[in-house]
C-alpha cells in the first residue's frame, strides 16, 4: 500500500494474551474495514517472538520494543512488580519507536492499562483511543470506586458470611451486586494502578469497549451520559468463525476435533481455566474427580498436567494441552463451558451460544460470573467463594455439571434458550447495520477525519 497517504494507526496492547488477542482482533477488523489504514502493532521483543509468525493482513505490521519488563513466563509470580514495570518502564522505549515510524502517526489505540500513552499522545499531538478489554460493568465499578468508599464498602477484609451478602445498588447502570461479587484478590498497589488507568482513560480522545451494546446497554448508556468523550462498543473482538471455518478431519493437530465429531450433539462440556493464574493442584484433582463422577463427556485444556488429569478424569473425556477455543465452542457436540470467566472466553461463549459453569479466580472474573448467572441467566455458579482455600469438592462439581448438561432438564433447557438468544443478539450486532458494525465504522471515520484535519 502507499504508506505516504496512509492513515497510520499505532496499536499498543498491554503485554498479556488476554489483552493482545482482542487488540489484534480489533486491528484486523479495522484493517478490513478501510484499506487506507496502516496499522503498526507494537509489542515487546518477547511477545514478537510469540506472535510474529501469526498471519496478519498486509496493512498490519508488527514492531517491537526491548524487553524492559519481566517475562510473560513469570509475570504471575509477582503481579504487582510486573504492573509497576509496565507503568514505569515501557513509555520511553515506545516513544523512541514512534520517532522512527513512517508515515506520521494519525492515532494511537492503547490498552486502558497503558495509561501513559495518553501523555505520549499529548506530546506528539496525536489522538489516543483507550481500549478496555474487560466488561463495561467492570469499567463502571472502577470508575465509580469512590462510591464504595463513601458508602463504607471499601476496604473490607472479610467477605465471608453476612458481610459478603450486603448489596451494592448505587453504581450507575449496574444491577444490585453482592459485596462478595465485586472485583477482588488484588493488592492495594495493583488496585491503585487500575484506578489510575481509569482516570487517564477519561482524558483520551475516545473509549472503546470490546463488548456489543446489547450485552450491557444500561452500563454503556450511563457512562455515555457522564463522559465528554465518545464511547464506541465494537465487540466482540474475537476472530469470527463460520461453519466453513471448522477444521477438516484430515487437518494436522486436530485430533480433538476428530474426537468431538464422534460425540452426540450438545453432549460435551468444554473445560478451560485460563492461561495466566491457575487453580491449585488439589482443586484440579477435585475437578477431574467431579467430571468423572458426573458421567458427562468433556474436553479439557490443561497445560502441563494433561496426562495426570486424564488418568484421574477417566475415559469419558479428553484432556489436551492446547486447542482452538472458539472453534471448539462452535462445534455442534459442545453443550457447555466450564470457565474461569475471563472476558475474552465469555465473549467467545456468547458468540457460540454455549451456556457456562462459572469458576472465577480473581479480579474482573468475579463480577463477570455474576453477570453470567444472575443478569444474563446463561450459566450456573460452580465456584461460589473466591480463593484457593475454598476447595470445591468433586461431588458438588459432579452435581452442578449434571444440572448444566442434562439436555432434557427444564433448567438446562432454559439456560440454552437464553444462550441462543444472546448468540442471536451478538450476530445482529456484528452484521452490516448492527450496533457494533456501525460503531466500528464511526470510529474509523473519526480516525480518517482526524488525519485530514492534521493534513490541512
TrEMBL record:
Keywords: Glycosyltransferase, Transferase. It is an enzyme of class 2 (transferase). Transmembrane segments: none annotated. It comes from the Eukaryota. One of its GO terms (molecular function) is quercetin 7-O-glucosyltransferase activity. Gene3D superfamilies: Glycogen Phosphorylase B (3.40.50.2000). The keyword S-adenosyl-L-methionine does not apply. Pfam families: UDPGT. InterPro entries: UDP_glucos_trans, UDP_glycos_trans_CS. CDD domains: GT1_Gtf-like (cd03784). The keyword Transferase applies. Its EC number is 2.4.1.-. Belongs to the UDP-glycosyltransferase family. This is Glycosyltransferase.
